[in-house]
Amino acid sequence: MNRIDAHEAITKAHHEEWARVVASLTRRFGDLDIAEEAAAEAFATAVQRWPADGVPPNPGAWLTTTANHRAIDRIRRESKRDDKHKEAQMVYDDDPPEPVGAIDDDRLRLIFTCCHPALAMETRVALTLRMVAGLTMPEIARAFLVAESAMGQRITRAKAKIKAARIPYRVPSAEDLPARVSGVLAVLFLVFNEGYLATGPGTDPVRHELTAEAIRLARLIRVLLPDDGEVAGLLALMLLTEARRPARVSAGGELVPLTEQDRGAWDADLIAEGHRLVRERLAAAAAGVAPGRYQILAAINAVHTSARDIRDTDWSQVLALYDQLVRLDPSPIVALNRAIAVAELDGPEVALAIVDRLAEALAGYHAYHATRADLLRRLGRSRESRAAYDRAIELAGNTAETAHLTRRRDQLR
C-alpha cells in the first residue's frame, strides 16, 4: 500500500471512528483528557505504521485497542495512579442502572456529558465539537468567530470542570431530558453546519460524515423525546438542508447557490420526510403550541424545497417566517438572512440599507461581505461590489465557496 492510500484510509477513519474511540475511552476511564490524548496518540501511531504495515481489516477496532493501550500507559506513568483509578471507578459507581429500553450509545452519552448545564452554553458546544465530532481547534474557533488560543483555553477549562464536578457519563433521566436537550441541539446544529459547509482550508468543501452523524444523533434524541417540537424541527431542518447537498457543489468544485441549483438532483425522500415533520409542527402550532427557532428555520427550508423553480419561491412566506424568527432570535446573522428575502420583495437597495446596519456586528463574517457584494452588484455599483467580494474571499475558509466568490467577482465589469 502506498502512502497516499494509507493517508486516505487514516482520514476516513478519523471522520468515522474518532467519536467512537473517544466515547469508548471516556466510558472506560471516566476522563476526557485521557480519552482525547489517547485517541490522538492512536491516530498518530496509525500515521506512522499504516503506510508500512497496511491498513488493518477493522480500523476502528485497531484504533480503539491502540488508544486503550496508550491510556493505560499514561495512567501508569502518573504518580497518583490509584487516585485516577478511583476517580474513574466513582463515575461508574454513581451511575444508576439504565432503564429497560434506554438508548445505549456511547456517543450520545458523551454528548450529554459535554453538554452538562454546569458548563456555559458556548463551552458545551465547543467541547462537543472537539470530543464528539473531532473538529480541530481552528475549525471550532472559526465556527465561533474567536481566536484559536481562546478556544483552546475554553475547552481545557471545560474538561477540568467536568472532572472536578464529577459530571457523570450517562444519558440523563427522563425528567431531566427536556432541560438538557437545548444544549445538545445547539451542538448538533453546529456539527451539521460544519459538515454542510466545512470551514477548514484542508478539508473537503462538504463533509458528509459530519452531516450524517448530526442527523443520526438527532434521530436518536427524537426517539428519547418524541413530543419535543424543537427536536423534530431540528431534524426536519437538517433533512431539508441535506436533501440539497447533491446540487451544492459543481463538478468543478465550486459552490452552487440555491438560486442556481439543479432541483432535480435534490433528494426527494429526504424532502418528503422533512416536509412531514414540518406539517406535524404546523399542526401543533395551530393547536396553540408556539414554534421554536429550529421549527421556524425548518419551515423556511420547507418553503424553498417546495418550489420547483427559484421563480416559484413564496418570498412573502419566507419573509413572514423570518419576521417570526427575529422575534425569537434577534441576532445579526438572522437579520442578514432576512435581508436576502427583503431584497427579493422590495429590491436590493432596501436590503442593502438593512445589511449596512450590521457592519459592526458582522465585520469578520464572510457571508456578510458576500451578501453585500451581491446586492451592490445588482445595483450596478461594481467597484464597491468588487471590494466586498475581495473581503468575502479573504474571510471564506471553504474552497468551494472561495471559487464561487472569485468567479462572481471576476464577472464584474
TrEMBL record:
Coiled coil: none annotated. Residues 78-97 are annotated as: Disordered. Pfam families: DUF6596, Sigma70_r2, Sigma70_r4_2. Keywords: Sigma factor, Transcription, Transcription regulation. Residues 20-80 form the RNA polymerase sigma-70 region domain. Residues 180-280 form the DUF6596 domain. Residues 78-88 have a biased composition (Basic and acidic residues). InterPro entries: DUF6596, RNA_pol_sigma70_r2, RNA_pol_sigma70_r4_t2, RNA_pol_sigma_r2, RNA_pol_sigma_r3/r4-like, TPR-like_helical_dom_sf, WH-like_DNA-bd_sf. Residues 111-162 form the RNA polymerase sigma factor 70 region 4 type domain. Belongs to the sigma-70 factor family. ECF subfamily. This is RNA polymerase sigma factor. It comes from Microbispora bryophytorum subsp. camponoti. The lineage of its organism: Bacteria, Bacillati, Actinomycetota, Actinomycetes, Streptosporangiales.
